[in-house]
Structure formats: C-alpha cells, structure tokens
Design brief:
The structure is a single chain. By secondary structure, the protein is of the alpha/beta class. It has eleven helices and twelve strands. It has three domains: about 10-135, Rossmann fold (3-Layer(aba) Sandwich), CATH 3.40.50.2300; about 150-215; about 225-370, Heat Shock Protein 90 (2-Layer Sandwich). The protein has a five-stranded parallel sheet, with helices on both faces. It is elongated and about 80 Å long.
C-alpha cells in the first residue's frame, strides 16, 4: 500500500515490552509512525495526544484491560471512526465475541507473524476509508467476515471437545489389546492384539497431534525441557514401531552419534514417531529406514531417511502444512497421508527454537531437524 507523505500513525497498546518492540519494528519498516503505550490508561492518553489512524490493542493487561480501553477510546473525539485491532493469545469464541461487543474492528491471535500484522492493519485502514463512502456495503462485508470467523472458532472448539473425549476410549482399547497380547492365547490371537495396539498408538498420535496443533495456534505449546538420552529414546520408538516395520519387511537402522539433548522428551518422542511412521508408510517393501542423530556446533540434528518416492522440490515447504498431500489420495504410490503428523513436527521443533526440512535421498526422502543444545 502506498503511504502518503504524512505517515499514518499507529498506536500500539501492550503491557509486554517485546510485543511493543515487535510491532514497532514491523510497522516502522513499512513507513508507519508508531506510538507506544504500556497500559490501557496510557493508551487513552496517547490517543488524545496523537489522534492515531489505527490502534493495535492487547486484550489482557493489568488495570484497564483491552475491552475497557476500547470502549473508552470509542467515546473520545473521532474514536468511533478509528480502526481498533485486538491482539490476544486467547483464540476462542468467547474472546472474539467480547472483542466485537467492545467495539473492535478485527481480531488477531498471538503469536502474530509480521506479514499478517501488516495485512490486517492495511485492511482495517482501507475498510475504514470505504466506510465513509459506502456504510451499508461495508457493514455487510464486516458482518460476513465476523460470521466466518465465528464459524471457524466454533469448529475449533468442537474439534477440541471431540479429540479430548476420544482419548479415554482409545486408551481403553489399547489396554484391552495389551491384555490380549499377554494372555495365553494362540500366536495368531496375540499377533492380532499386537496389530490392534499398533493401530491404536497411531490413532492416539493423531489425536495428540490435533490437540497440540490447537495449542500451537494459541501460543500454548511450551516445551518442558529435560536432558533426553537420545540412544534410549530412538531405541524405544523403533521398538514400538517394530511390528509395523516387520509387516512391511522393512529394517529399522539406528545410528546415534549424539548422546543427549536438552528438550521435551514427550514432544521429541512424538516427533520421531511421526517421522518414522511417515517413512514406513512410504518406504518400499524389503528396504531400510534409518534414524541418525549427530551433534555439531551446539546443535543436535536428527535425520529419518527412506528409499520411497521422495518429495518434489516444489512441495518441500508445503508438506509441513496441515492436510497437504504430495499426490492425490487415489495414487497409492505417492506420498499421501492426513497431513497432520508433519505439521505437528514443524510446530514442536519450532517450539524448541529449531527447524525442520526435507531433502532428496536419491532415491527417497530425508526428513531432517535441528534443535539447539540449550542447557
């Protein structure tokens, strides 16, 4: 958006210094004049002094919260016409409805990406200008936008309820399967019990992935770091997936050159489970899937390699997005799946301050991740 010679003024009201610094750096780079306030009360004073063109307003602040601050700004001269965008870590329907009742124009969930912040500010400014000339049309657009957002939040809430309620019956199925495996039954019955356990563990991973993806959207996925014995962890995960590998006549190879890592053991285990399950799904029969760990320059790297079809270069970034499939579902030879396991892996790795990527194994694919060895 081309800016006029007189910079557009954006008031940022947030009690967290790092959030104010992030907003200032992002907006000033685009030529906006940024005014900062550390509380609702200070935000109202800054509004009176500078008459900003747009307000970015944190919801949860000590003293005067975002909703009360918004209501007060709306009572000031020109306050009714100023776009107000709420910033919040609470992505839920009640917070969204409260933001609308308080007079907010838009709603952004933390953590906010720079591009998203800029686009929302620009959209709010354009919408406010359009409102002056065509109020009825803009009101209709805003109502449709708010209805879509409300529907999305309702779907997310329903998904959270369903996933949470499914965990108990899935755990009970796993318990009954364990009893079958341990009982004095025929080898075929014990094998069936082991197969049930295998599928139940896969289903539980899917449920946990869904829960953690929701947590990640709300900024609530925080690793509980401890010292993790990598050799023990890799062996544990490979043992758990040994039945699935044996059924496809695939060998699991472990090459652990890094002794330990300061990380969340449960998240790291599930990252490895998802990557290995993905590799086993796409590896050819009578092939090898390898897990390798190494350490260099304060970073631990983990690599899971298979000799399947691989991932085209054009999709090596998108494959970590939700519900992405490299090939159509009916193409059984391609890389397919629910697209949740890899999305969870990226979320969990980035929560550790690391990164994840995919390379060509010639043939096959190598899914690699690196995590800093922060103590």
């Amino acid at each position: 958006m081309s800016l006029p010679s007189s910079p557009i003024k954006i008031l940022v009201v947030d009690d967290q210094e790092q959030n104010r610094a992030f907003a200032r750096a992002t907006l000033e780079e685009e030529g906006y004049e940024v005014i900062l306030a550390a509380s609702g009360e200070e935000g109202i004073e800054r509004y009176r002094e500078h008459a900003p063109d747009c307000v970015l307003l944190d919801v949860r602040m000590p003293g005067l919260d975002g909703f009360a601050t918004c209501a007060r700004i709306r009572e000031l001269p020109h306050g009714a016409e100023t776009p107000i965008v709420f910033l919040t870590a609470q992505r839920d329907l009640d917070t969204f409805d409260a933001a609308l009742r308080a007079g907010g124009d838009d709603f952004l969930t933390k953590p906010v990406r720079p591009t998203e912040l800029l686009l929302r500010v620009q959209a709010s400014l354009k919408l406010r200008r359009a409102y002056v000339s065509n109020r009825e049309y803009v009101d209709l657009l805003r109502q449709q936008r708010d209805d879509l957002m409300r529907l999305q939040l309702q779907k997310e809430r329903l998904m959270g309820f369903v996933v949470h309620d499914l965990k108990n019956p899935v755990s009970n199925i796993d318990l009954q399967a364990q009893l079958l495996v341990r009982d004095r039954l025929s080898p075929e019955a014990r094998e069936a019990g082991a197969s049930i356990r295998d599928e139940v563990r896969s289903l539980m991973r899917l449920l946990l992935n869904l829960l953690d993806l929701s947590k990640g959207e709300e900024g609530r996925l925080i690793p509980a770091r401890t010292t993790v014995d990598l050799a023990s962890l890799v062996r544990e995960v490979c043992d758990a997936l040994a039945g699935r590998a044996k059924a496809r006549e695939i060998s699991l190879r472990q090459l652990v050159d890094a002794p330990s890592l300061h990380a969340d053991r449960d998240l790291l285990r599930r990252i490895l489970e998802n990557l290995l399950e993905n590799a086993l799904r796409h590896a050819p029969v009578n092939s090898v899937v390898s897990v390798r760990t190494s350490e260099s320059k304060g970073v631990t790297e983990l690599r899971v390699a298979d000799t399947g079809q691989g991932v085209p270069p054009s999709l090596r970034e998108a494959i970590f997005d939700r519900f992405v499939q490299v090939d159509k579902p009916e193409q059984a030879t391609g890389r397919s799946g629910r697209g949740l396991g890899l999305a969870f892996c990226r979320l969990a790795v980035e929560a550790h301050g690391g990164r994840i990527w995919v390379e060509d194994a010639q043939p096959g694919a190598v899914f690699s991740l690196s995590i800093p060895n922060a103590g």
